């Protein structure tokens, strides 16, 4: 990347394990994971709402647990399994959470959806039958301005019932 | 429309649902074009100052900087309303709020652009900032904020004054007269997506992708400021990350990237930071309200006098309309026989206020609902009973000449009271329920720039590959594309997903005035209905000829078939007979406004109605108010898509709760106190209670299949219902928003000291309102509109 800044930018090679693929990049060390995903790797499914760790929009999974990619440097997550929204579906088959979100219209503008979907995925993997309160607590760091959260809760509960055979 | 509907009324998920949950939807900031430059805007750090000089030489010398712009490069002013062309893309001679754009840089990356902005030297002469309504009413210490627009020594922007009917007689007939003062705090949209725009200039044509709610208004503003004909500009609405009214103005960054793309010959992107989004604002006007109302002993309103004062921030935006809206729609819920309304909007050195969900009406609604509660209390009446006694009747005309068509207020009230158990609630200290109603417009009856053209235009193209619908309306997440697809599918006998949609692209789609004012389902829906019906009759005629059937009624359309043919086969038959097939539909609201200047704000072809009950737990020790449940009944006319309508209702309730309980903008010495998502409190998953939504259908004669709006109305009753519930729980009124714990405690302290059991503004400022325009009210049963109504005015001029 050409930079106009009149200063030394330290670059380093970073190897990421991203959505099941190995990626190797030469990066300025100060670039956040959010920036690298969106700008260097073209994974624009990860959104941003504040870039200060306040809104949850840029949530990705690191070894299955939600992290705010705007506060993570790629070096910190070398060798760990990263999942972005692009890695949630299995090819053409949506994750049950994605199916449920679509069905009940839990995504309106959809801008917060990738982050919420990943946070919900993490929740259901550790707690397959969460109570409504547990879902609210797990997702409380993710803001949504469209839905009033009602349809999102409904979608997570619907996905949970489908993911656990009864 | 008969009861037999196919697509209409069914709960289809949104057309773009899968793209959004898979991260495939392309929002403006997701666009990256080859050789794209990044733009940063230098913004004022003083609330009010003259610009003495701008030195960009150091910035221009920086490696990686492609272009630098200042106000001199973009001298033509613009603004959303023709009467308020008071903004510049970059300010040249003065700044009016912290955040006002002054210069812009395009560079190879964002960091370089930001560093170059820092290298720009701006010399300011500081002026005294004006930060409150009271200060703005006085003569300016240095100079008015908008010197060339207000032509006054103070900072009053706009005043309105009307008297409908005989106010003195109305008050004379009252048994009780009560006055109250309220304050509605300013707050902001806080869309999750930061505004973003990307411009590209090739072959002498400019293309702009933007996170706008209205491609047409951006198109007009760019044409005006860059002096380019509209045929050289294409504006495309990117996937939309939330608007709520905050992306309905044309913005500086959109014009700046367009100019930079032309200057550099390279694509240019600008994405606002979250802090900049707080400065772009256009949110809720902080508003003081004074109500004086006369009521007979039976609870009937005899007269009402309302004064409002709006803190508009530094620019006009939609403000000339907002001031009307604080006083216009009270009459479409309550039958007020004599009504005086005086409103004032002032300029202050803060980010400009504009249209947020409910546009001007939440403030007036908040005031009137609580005011009537207090009057009921004075009379020893049940507030619900008092309100119901004054409900407007369906198919009637209000004192200020607004025409009401369908009105489900009674039914909404009945249903929400029954569902919540309001009447039989247990009376325990610290627990309470509040009730409120509201109404909102299904699109404004008048275009914001005056013209007689349609407000919405739709084209439908059919060829051997099927049907495509084209419309300029922007799906901002509410699902309007699906609604348009359902309308076309209904008429053409298809499933909605069989219709291709092309929307919000000024090269490809005919003009629609955009996604605001709760107008898309109603207006674009009506236009789509007309286009689809025309297309249906063409196809039916061709198929009938092929089938040798004389009576066109015998050709069934539905289930993907036309007569004995599949839809695509029918398209082949119709194309063979007629050649290229394209139909159009237009919608222009009927002329409804009364015979007086300013009657254009408030009329709508139809009004939605809502009733809500909010249940709270309010702790008298801490003042903390927790909303436990909300019941809401909404008169949607007809629910074309219940899934999407309920989504709008729930979102509106949530946003209302945010305004009621925590959302507020405050300023300290000209600085926004909390321009971040952490400090600007908005409800989380944990703060949002269960919401029980009841849809009431009244099948409005004006709406497509009888539909009315859902996007804005349901926010309105929630806010006063919270305050009424707090009174129910603790016996004190908080006469302002938001209801914070401190305010509850102050109200409890006031009550304990034997004062009035309230916390709120002490009084309403002395404002020199102009002499009111006196308007004779219409006959309540006069429902005439359009030419018929205008003819009646010319026969007997009733008012000046």
Low-confidence stretches of chain B: none
How large is the count of helical segments of chain B? Answer: 20
Instruction: State the helical fraction of chain B.
Output: 25-40%
Strand order of the largest sheet of chain A: 2-1-5-3-4
Structural shape of chain B: globular
For the record, give the distance between the C-alpha atoms at the N and C termini of chain B, rounded to a whole number. Answer: 41 Å
Order of helices and strands of chain A: EEHEEEHHHH
Please, what is the average pLDDT of chain B?
Answer: 96
User: Taking strands numbered 1, 2, ... along the chain, how are they ordered across the largest sheet of chain B?
Assistant: 3-5-1-12-9-10-11
Structural class by SSE content of chain B: alpha+beta
Q: Largest beta sheet of chain B, briefly? A: 7 strands, mixed
Q: Tell me what portion of residues of chain B adopts beta-strand conformation.
A: 15-25%
Distance N terminus to C terminus of chain A?
53 Å
- How many beta strands in the DSSP annotation of chain B? 33
Characteristic terms for this protein:
A: 166 residues, 5-stranded mixed β-sheet, 31% helix, B: alpha+beta, 7-stranded mixed β-sheet, 6-stranded mixed β-sheet, 24% strand
Describe the structure.
Chain A has five helices and five strands. Chain A has 166 residues and is of the alpha+beta class. The longest helix of chain A is centred in the last third of the chain and has 14 residues, at 113-126. Chain B is built from 20 helices and 33 strands. In chain B, strands 3-5-1-12-9-10-11 form a seven-stranded mixed beta sheet. Chain B has a six-stranded mixed beta sheet with strand order 8-13-14-15-7-33. In chain B, strands 18-26-27-30 form a four-stranded mixed beta sheet, sandwiched between helices. In chain B, a hairpin with a 5-residue loop joins strand 13 and strand 14 (301-311). The longest helix of chain B has 28 residues, at 520-547. The two termini of chain B are 41 Å apart. The chains are: A alpha+beta (166), B alpha+beta (800). The interface between A and B is large, with 62 and 65 residues.
């Amino acid at each position: 990347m050409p930079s106009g800044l009149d200063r030394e930018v330290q670059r380093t090679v970073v190897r990421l394990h991203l959505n099941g693929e190995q990626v190797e990049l030469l990066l300025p060390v100060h670039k956040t994971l959010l920036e690298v995903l969106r700008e260097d790797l073209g994974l624009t499914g990860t959104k941003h709402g504040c870039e200060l760790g306040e809104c949850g929009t840029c949530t990705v999974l690191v070894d299955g647990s939600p992290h705010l990619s705007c506060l993570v440097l790629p070096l910190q997550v070398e060798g760990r399994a990263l999942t972005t929204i692009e890695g949630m579906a299995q090819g053409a088959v949506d994750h049950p959470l994605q199916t449920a979100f679509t069905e009940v219209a839990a995504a309106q503008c959809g801008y917060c959806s990738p982050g919420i979907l990943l946070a919900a995925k993490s929740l259901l993997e550790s707690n397959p039958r969460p109570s409504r309160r547990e879902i609210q607590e797990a997702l409380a760091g993710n803001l949504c301005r469209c839905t009033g959260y009602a349809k999102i809760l409904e979608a997570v509960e619907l996905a949970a019932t489908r993911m656990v055979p009864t | 429309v008969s009861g037999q509907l196919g697509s209409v009324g069914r709960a289809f998920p949104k057309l773009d649902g899968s793209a959004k949950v898979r991260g495939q939807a392309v929002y403006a900031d997701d666009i990256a074009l080859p050789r794209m430059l990044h733009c940063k805007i230098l913004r004022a750090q003083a609330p009010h100052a003259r610009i003495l000089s701008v030195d960009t030489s150091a910035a221009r010398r920086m490696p990686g900087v492609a272009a630098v712009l200042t106000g001199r490069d973009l001298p033509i002013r613009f603004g959303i309303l023709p009467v308020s062309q008071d903004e510049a893309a970059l300010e040249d001679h003065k700044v009016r709020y912290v955040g006002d754009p002054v210069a812009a840089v395009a560079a190879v990356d964002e960091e370089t652009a930001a560093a170059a902005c820092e290298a720009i030297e701006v010399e300011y002469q500081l002026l005294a900032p004006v930060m409150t309504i009271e200060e703005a009413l006085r003569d300016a210490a240095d100079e008015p904020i908008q010197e060339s627009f207000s032509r006054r020594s103070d900072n009053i922007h706009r005043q309105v004054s009307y008297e409908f009917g005989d106010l003195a007689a109305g008050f004379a007939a009252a048994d009780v007269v009560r006055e109250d003062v309220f304050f509605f705090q300013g707050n902001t949209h806080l869309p999750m997506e930061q505004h973003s725009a990307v411009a590209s200039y090739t072959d002498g044509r400019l293309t702009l992708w933007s996170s706008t709610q209205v491609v047409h208004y951006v198109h007009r503003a760019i044409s005006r400021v860059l002096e380019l004909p509209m045929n050289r500009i294409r504006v495309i609405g990117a996937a939309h990350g939330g608007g709520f009214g905050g992306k309905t103005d044309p913005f500086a960054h959109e014009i700046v990237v367009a100019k930079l793309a032309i200057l550099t010959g390279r694509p240019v992107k600008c994405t606002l930071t979250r802090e900049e989004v707080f400065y772009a604002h256009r949110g809720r006007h902080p508003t003081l309200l004074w109500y004086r109302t006369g009521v007979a002993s039976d609870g009937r309103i005899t007269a009402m006098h309302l004064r409002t004062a709006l803190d508009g921030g530094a620019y006009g935006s939609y403000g000339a309309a907002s001031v009307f809206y604080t006083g216009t729609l009270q009459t479409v819920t309550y039958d007020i026989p004599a009504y005086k309304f005086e409103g004032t909007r002032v300029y202050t050195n803060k980010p400009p206020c504009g249209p947020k969900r409910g546009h001007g009406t939440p403030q007036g609604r908040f005031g009137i609902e609580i005011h009537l509660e207090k009057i009921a209390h004075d009379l020893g009446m049940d507030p619900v009973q008092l309100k119901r006694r004054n409900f407007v009747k369906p198919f009637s005309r209000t004192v200020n000449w607004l025409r009401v068509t369908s009105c489900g207020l009674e039914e909404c009230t009945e249903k929400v009271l029954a569902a919540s158990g309001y009447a039989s609630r247990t009376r325990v200290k610290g627990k309470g329920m509040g009730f409120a109603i509201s109404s909102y417009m299904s699109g404004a009856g008048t275009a914001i720039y005056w013209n007689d053209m349609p407000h919405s235009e739709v084209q439908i193209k059919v060829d051997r590959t099927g049907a495509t619908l084209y419309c300029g309306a922007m799906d901002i997440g509410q699902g309007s594309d699906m609604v348009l697809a359902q309308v076309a599918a209904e008429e053409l006998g298809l499933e909605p997903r069989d219709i291709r949609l092309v929307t919000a692209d000024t090269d490809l789609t005919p003009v629609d005035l955009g996604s605001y004012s709760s107008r898309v389902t109603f207006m674009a829906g009506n236009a789509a209905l007309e286009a689809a019906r025309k297309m249906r009759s063409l196809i039916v005629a061709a198929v009938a000829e092929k089938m040798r059937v004389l009576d066109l009624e015998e050709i069934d359309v539905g289930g993907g078939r036309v007569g004995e043919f599949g839809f695509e086969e029918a398209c082949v038959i119709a194309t063979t007979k007629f050649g290229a097939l394209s139909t159009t539909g237009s919608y222009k609201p009927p002329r409804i406004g009364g015979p007086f200047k300013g009657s254009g704000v408030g009329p709508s072809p139809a009004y939605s109605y809502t009733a809500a009950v909010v249940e709270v737990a309010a702790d008298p020790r801490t003042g903390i108010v927790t909303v436990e449940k909300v019941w809401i009944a909404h008169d949607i006319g007809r629910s074309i898509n219940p899934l999407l309508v309920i989504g709008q209702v729930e979102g509106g309730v949530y946003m209302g709760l945010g305004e009621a309980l925590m959302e507020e903008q405050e300023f300290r010495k000209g600085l926004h106190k909390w321009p971040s998502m952490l400090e600007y409190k908005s409800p989380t998953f944990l703060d949002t209670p269960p919401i029980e939504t009841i849809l009431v259908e009244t099948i409005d004669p004006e709406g497509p299949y009888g539909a009315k709006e859902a996007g804005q109305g349901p926010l309105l009753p929630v806010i006063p219902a919270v305050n009424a519930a707090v009174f129910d729980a603790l016996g004190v009124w908080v006469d302002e928003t938001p209801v914070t714990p401190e305010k509850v405690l102050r109200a409890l302290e006031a009550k304990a000291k034997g004062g009035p059991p309230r916390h709120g503004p002490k009084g309403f400022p002395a404002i020199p309102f102009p002499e009111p325009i006196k308007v004779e009210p219409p006959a309540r049963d006069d429902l005439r509109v359009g030419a018929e109504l205008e003819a009646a005015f010319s026969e007997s001029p009733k008012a000046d």
